[in-house]
């Protein structure tokens, strides 16, 4: 098998004196590890391509031992401004760590690649809130992997929740209950109308729009609690600093 396409380089390591291994994400083949033999010395085949957080056009072949071999690459975007700013680099690293922890179905790889690319492009152009954009990225990525919650109406009575003051978010069910309806068993999180409005906007927007969002401290806190609980329940991942662990 051989293919040639733009991929996102996530991590790079070395083995032996001149060779590299590269962890990258392909929009058609998913998360792969390839080997660039002689990559540390070759300026012609891999000029500027073997750096983490880079968009690269690789030509990839399958070696005799069933591993992926990187034949050559062309740098498309190195995101230089992002890498010069430790704050933005930290945000990008957090998003990539979460991304690497996921398992992708074949029909979700292209959209996942597009979301990660748009996130890095946004961080390369602007300086969003350091503690909030990674939360939005986690939520959006989880929603696009088939776990989109229903935030429009009460699961009990079916009434629209746009005018409700607060609602109970049922983490396992992925839906809401208005104050009039019993919410049953399971983990619930009290959620304000402003937080619900933000999460609804998140469903129809991308990182380019998020960079300008400035929610109140209360909304940020509610979003963090809700997203962390939802990700842990449905994806089995919990955030531990800059790592994501299986629970």
Automatic annotation (TrEMBL):
One GO CC term, this protein: bacterial nucleoid
Keywords linked to the UniProt accession: DNA damage, DNA recombination, DNA repair
Keyword field contains DNA repair: yes
UniProt record, GO biological process: DNA recombination; double-strand break repair
Domain DNA replication/recombination mediator RecO N-terminal positions: 1-79
Function: Involved in DNA repair and RecF pathway recombination.
Family in the record: Belongs to the RecO family.
Protein name: DNA repair protein RecO
Organism: Desulfomicrobium orale DSM 12838
Gene: recO
């Amino acid at each position: 098998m051989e293919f040639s396409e733009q991929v996102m380089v996530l991590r790079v390591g070395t083995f032996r004196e001149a060779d590299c291994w590269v962890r990258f994400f392909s929009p058609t083949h998913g998360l792969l590890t390839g080997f660039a033999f002689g990559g540390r010395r070759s300026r012609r085949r891999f000029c500027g391509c073997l750096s983490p957080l880079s968009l690269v056009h690789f030509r990839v072949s399958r070696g005799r031992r069933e591993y992926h071999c990187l034949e050559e690459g062309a740098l498309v975007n190195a995101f230089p401004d992002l890498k010069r700013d430790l704050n933005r680099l930290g945000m990008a690293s957090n998003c990539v760590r979460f991304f690497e922890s996921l398992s992708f179905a074949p029909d979700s790889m292209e959209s996942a690649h597009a979301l990660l690319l748009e996130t890095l492009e946004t961080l390369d152009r602007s300086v969003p809130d350091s503690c909030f954009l990674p939360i939005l990225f986690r939520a959006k990525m989880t929603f696009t992997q088939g776990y989109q919650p229903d935030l429009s109406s009460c699961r009990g009575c079916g009434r629209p929740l746009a005018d409700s003051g607060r609602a109970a978010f049922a983490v396992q069910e992925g839906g809401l209950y208005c104050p009039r309806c019993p919410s049953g068993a399971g983990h619930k999180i009290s959620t304000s109308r402003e937080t619900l409005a933000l999460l609804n906007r998140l469903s129809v927007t991308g990182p380019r729009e998020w960079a300008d969002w400035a929610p109140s401290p209360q909304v940020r806190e509610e979003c963090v609690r809700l997203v962390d609980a939802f990700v842990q329940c449905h994806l089995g991942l919990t955030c531990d600093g800059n790592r994501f662990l299986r629970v």
